[in-house]
Amino acid sequence: MAEYDYDVLVIGAGPGGYVAAIRAAQLGLKTACAEGRETLGGTCLNVGCIPSKAMLHASEFFNAATNGTMAEMGIEVEPKLNLDKMHEQRRDAVKSLTGGIQFLFKKNKVDWKKGYATFQDAHTVKIGDETVTAKDIIIATGSSVTPLPGVEIDNDNHVVVDSTGALELPAVPKKMVVIGGGVIGLEMGSVWCRLGAEVIVVEYLDKLLPGMDDDVRKEAAKIFKKQGMELRLSTKVTGVSVEGKKATLTLEPSAGGESETLEADCVLVSIGRKPNTDGLGLDKIGLETNKRGQIDIDHDFRTKVDGVWAIGDVVPGPMLAHKAEDEGIACAENVAGLTGIVNHDLIPGVVYTWPEFAGVGLTQDEAIEKMGGDKTKIKVGKFPMMANSRAKTNHEPDGFVKIIAEAESDRVLGVWAIASVAGTMIQQATQAMEFGATSEDIAYTCHAHPTHSEAIKEAAMGVQGKPIHI
Ligand code: FAD
Ligand code: NAI
Question: Is the interface score ipTM higher than 0.85?
Fold first, then answer.
């Protein structure tokens, strides 16, 4: 009889966990995956990447019809919002994709153990009434919303909501206050702004989108203001009270000072996410979380407990689905005795607003810091989308591409893009950087015309000092 029920048990079926489980099974390991939700796919497929993109895509069409962009192209329509239908197509997308994972589990013979898993020891977990043993266990429990002290989220009341509640609003709020000008705040704020809400973003820092290049962050403020959002930067929310369907927020300058109040029909709390480890029974296996609540791992995704591995949002690094997926594949390969690697220096990040904001590698400040603070050791090329023929033709003038390269070697250190399709464009930059490209390599690579990607070539020519179209 086998010593364990399974070779591998994965806890959590988000993009990290379900991908790890499928990869482990593909590699011939007997695999099970515990998931407490009713459907597979984790945060990403159920309440994250996919439903938010369904709402962003649909609301952008509505916006193009209402803000005059379509009319500029000779399409005159009188748009009418059918929000129920918009929600329905979002739910359909989620249903079909989560069902797709269930199909892939069956196809690859991954057993789904429905329920929340708790460690009994390093090779044993309880899932409901069932006890399951496995030689190796991969923790992929993901993350959930960071609460704001003193602010109670009640998604069912639709007044103070998190991202999950913001996806499900039954009506367009008249006035929405977004707490946190990060990725979720700007994506979900964009959805409701496009559908007619007055949106006010309250951000603690002096710029939006922490982690992105400074030029991108500055431009973001201009673009979202132009789109009608009100930005309250360097401001913090100190309290929210709710009476019926109205919220009253108390705000004050981040640095301290006089407070003021603001009324809203809806408040979105989007100040970050925290790793999910509650109820996992980490104490039973002698595993502690770090100061940020994350599970520390080594280069190969091993925790300090033999046979226990961890990936995705629950470990350090950007909380992104593609990072979790890549870690899932690499971790399963390591469990199987192969060599699985993720290049954590090149994880692209994309904000799926209009235009999209994307980046990979170092920001300009990080690059200078890497060069010991010597600005002359980097070169920067920038090209405006206004001068890109395709963007101009498509009525998409906002944005730019910026390439940062090491002056001596010309090796590309970072690429930043604001463009309607920046999320797609950043992929070519990621690939080029993965292959160690110089800006000259990119500048002398033939780019199809007319495409937005030509702006990457021109920015690379800018690093070389010789762009053509500006
Ligand atoms: P998760 O997807 O969080 O999955 C973990 C799963 O584990 C959950 O289903 C949970 O139920 C389950 N679980 C937890 N504990 C247990 C337990 N003890 N037993 C059994 N099961 C358990 N990222 C992008 O890259 N692109 C995007 O466009 C994007 N959009 C987003 C939009 C929103 C609104 C949000 C909230 C997030 C978005 N993200 C996006 C982030 C992305 O969703 C996460 O980075 C990704 O889902 C992390 O994957 P994961 O597998 O680590 O965890
Ligand atoms: P975030 O970290 O992107 O942004 C949170 C923002 O809130 C920061 O700008 C922070 O300064 C601000 N903030 C914190 N406390 C505040 C306070 N008290 N008052 C005002 N502002 C405050 O976190 P967010 O937007 O919640 O997203 C969580 C995670 O989900 C991100 O790490 C992101 O990686 C992931 N995600 C990714 C998406 C994508 O890839 N397109 C889309 C949505 C989420």
Answer: yes
